[in-house]
Design goal:
It is built from 4 helices and 2 strands; from the N terminus they run H-E-E-H-H-H. By secondary structure, it is mainly alpha-helical. The chain has one domain (3-111). It has a two-stranded antiparallel sheet. The N and C termini lie far apart (53 Å).
Length: 114
């Protein structure tokens, strides 16, 4: 696994943690057309109930077509996840820059005081 894949999966885990209070979330990696595992960049967050345990119409592996009718196709969900990760990245960068800016601002304003 590459460094960028690890970073992406870390963001995905962060997204899963923020989306659900379920304790056991796992990324589901989409399959390519040959039934083989796809890239780690093509993963969607699914809690245990939506991945395997929820039964027909709830869990992906209990009935893919019913799951997709209710929640969307794998590719539709993947696009939503990528969009959410992009938004979270932008927000994180804004907050991080703001924190750094405020830190340096406080140093500059307090360094002249005696």
């Amino acid at each position: 696994m590459t460094k960028s894949e690890k970073e992406h999966l870390s963001k995905l885990h962060q997204l899963m943690h923020n989306m659900s209070h379920a304790s056991r979330n796992t990324p589901y990696t989409l399959r390519n057309g040959l039934g083989q595992r796809n890239s780690n960049f093509n993963a969607i967050p699914l809690c245990a109930n939506h991945h395997r345990n929820g039964g027909y119409g709830i869990a992906f592996h209990a009935g893919r077509k019913a799951f997709e009718q209710k929640f969307g196709t794998e590719l539709e969900l993947l696009e939503k996840v990528k969009g959410l990760i992009n938004i979270l990245t932008i927000v994180y960068n804004i907050i991080n820059k703001s924190v750094v800016f405020n830190y340096f601002k406080s140093i500059v304003t307090t360094s002249g005081k005696q």
